[in-house]
Structures are given as C-alpha cells and as structure tokens.
Amino acid sequence: MLKSGPNHWGSLAKFFHWTIVVLILVQGTIGLVMVELPKRPNVIPVFSFHKSLGLTILALAVLRLAWRAFDPHPRAPASMPHWQVLGARAGHALLYVLIFAVPISGYWFDSVAALRPLYWFDLFQVPHVFAPDPGMKDIAVDTHETLFWILVVVAAGHALAALIHHFHDRDVVLRRMLPFARS
Ligand code: HEM
Ligand code: HEM
C-alpha cells in the first residue's frame, strides 16, 4: 500500500526513510574520506559526486516532507508512555531539520567558496543561491561538519530507541517500518 494508515507505514514513507538512511551513510563516508585525500585535481570528481549526492538527499527530503503532509501518520502503540511519545516526536522533528540543514550547509559552503560551477552529476548546472563570500568559508565548513556530527548522534539515539522498542518492549514500532514487513 502506498499510503500509511493508523497501524502501518505505507511503501512510499518506507521508501523515503530507508533510501535517505542508506544515502546518508554513503554520503557521510565519502565526505569523511574525501577531506583526507591529497588536494590534487583528481579529487575534484569525488567532491563533485559528494555535492551531487548531497543535493539528491536534499531533494528527497523535500519530497518526503511534502508526502508526509498528505500521508496519515501511524499511531504510537497504546503501551507507550506519554513522555516517550513526546520524546519520539521531538527526535523525529530534529531529524527532519537535520536532513535539510546538513545538505543546505554544504550547499552554503560551496556557494561562499565559489571555487567552480556546481553541477548535478554533470547533467545540469545548479545555481549558487548564496553569494560568494570567501570570508565565510571557515564558518560554513565548520557548520557543515558540526551539523553532520549532530545528525550522527541523533540518528544513533533514534536507531537505538527503535531497537529497544523491538527487543525490549517487543512492540510493532520497528517491525512496521521495515521494508516488505507487515505489522
Ligand atoms: C546529507 C547530505 C550531506 C552529508 C551527510 C555530508 C557530509 C559531509 C562530511 C561528513 C564532510 C566531511 C567534513 C569534515 O570532516 O571536514 C563533508 C564535506 C564537504 N561537503 Fe558535505 N555532506 C552533505 C551534503 C553536501 C552538499 C549538498 C554539498 C554541496 C553542494 C556538500 C559539500 C561538501 C564539501 C565541499 C565538503 C568539503 C569541505 C572541505 O573542503 O573541507 N555536502 N560533507
Ligand atoms: C540517518 C539515519 C536516520 C534518519 C535521518 C531517520 C529519520 C527518521 C524520521 C524523520 C522518522 C519519522 C518519520 C515521520 O514521522 O514522518 C523516522 C521514523 C522511524 N525510524 Fe528512522 N531514521 C534514521 C535511521 C533509522 C534506523 C537505523 C532505524 C532502525 C534501526 C530507524 C527506525 C525508524 C522507525 C522504526 C521509525 C518509525 C517510528 C514510529 O513509528 O513512530 N531509523 N526516522
């Protein structure tokens, strides 16, 4: 089923969730490795790939949030205490903010550094919406890196909570989000 319901996540919500998780894992790894490579012209394609994949994640985050506006949200299990429901809601809101803020900060860095035109997988040029400002480069890159590590910590806490639901509380929370699984 494409749409979610009171007791299940629809296939589109699951697709967005797990595609973004996998792409963020790949993207974070590429980011951490590429900044350690010797600064030679042959690293430019790696940086370009990172930027293109990052813009793809941003586009998926936009589509995901837009779909969420039309998609009913499954109910929390009745056994879940109120403080946990509020905590989960706050955590999810923060994750939404971060899947936007991390790529936007990368895009901001690329714009202020203005080293070369930005292309999406060599297919079309993406305009730099932020004005070039080399004085902001260090702040922009630190913001990108810091937001990434905040995302890592919040996502790790979120994944741990999902595992506690499954193995300790033995409820449907993780099962109903798994691809191909029906709760
Ligand atoms: C969810 C999306 C993204 C993630 C998870 C991510 C993650 C990272 C990470 C972990 C680093 C290494 C930071 C460090 O240790 O210094 C990095 C660097 C970088 N990112 Fe991203 N990034 C994302 C999106 C983007 C986007 C959309 C752009 C540009 C359009 C971008 C441009 C860059 C650049 C240019 C660097 C290198 C900074 C330097 O030269 O030190 N990133 N990114
Ligand atoms: C980069 C990593 C991750 C991000 C950014 C992320 C983001 C999110 C967001 C924003 C939601 C809320 C969906 C909504 O209300 O529309 C969510 C739900 C969920 N996530 Fe993740 N997630 C990540 C990794 C994981 C991992 C690794 C697991 C499993 C171990 C997981 C399990 C779940 C589950 C079970 C739900 C549904 C919770 C419920 O029914 O209320 N997530 N995730």
Descriptive keywords:
mainly alpha; 4 helices; 2 strands; 183 residues; binds protoporphyrin IX containing FE; Fumarate Reductase Cytochrome B subunit; two-stranded antiparallel ribbon; 3% strand
Topology:
Blueprint: H1 11-34, H2 44-70, H3 82-113, E1 118-120, E2 124-126, H4 137-167
Antiparallel strand pairs: 1-2
One protoporphyrin IX containing FE is lined by residues 17, 20-21, 24, 68, 73-74, 88, 92, 95-96, 99, 155, 158-159, 162-163, 173-174, 177.
Strand order in the largest sheet: 1-2
List each distinct ligand once.
protoporphyrin IX containing FE
Number of domains: 1
- Give the CA-based shape: elongated
Span from first to last CA?
Answer: 13 Å
Architecture in CATH? Up-down Bundle
The SS-based structural class is mainly alpha
Q: Rg to the nearest angstrom? A: 19 Å
> Strand share of the residues?
under 5%
Tally of helical segments: 4
Mean of all residue-level pLDDT scores = 96
Helix percent band: 55-70%
CATH topology: Fumarate Reductase Cytochrome B subunit
- Number of beta strands: 2
